[in-house]
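Recall the central idea of this unit: under ordinary conditions, the amino acid sequence of a chain determines the structure it adopts. In this exercise we apply that idea directly, starting from the sequence alone.
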Amino acid sequence: MRNRKKAVIYAVFAVLTAFIVVRVYFYLNKPEFEITGSFAQSYTMVGGQRCRDTDISVIVYKNFNDPDLYKRVKEEHNRINGEPTKLTINLYKYSVKNNEPYRIVVIDYLNNTEEIVK
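Accordingly, the structure predicted from this sequence is:
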């Protein structure tokens, strides 16, 4: 009877240890952020200048409060899609259930301004 209790305790310990190891492994292998959605609108201004406004949704897995995070997101977007006239970045935490971003960054390339709205 005593050996059976030890075996059950060891089995429970092994399962919990495996669970913790898997969770840590997946956490360490997650990317810092993931661009999940993009909406681009192209138009021509009165003077004939062509413009493209882009809104992107980004899920942030790590480094929520990093002040340079939006710069890395901006560089990744511009590397893949090219530089728009205006880029709006909506940052969402991956663990939050509501649909509101925790930070919105608006980058206007025509006026060379960056504004953190939220």
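The two ends are 62 Å apart (CA to CA).
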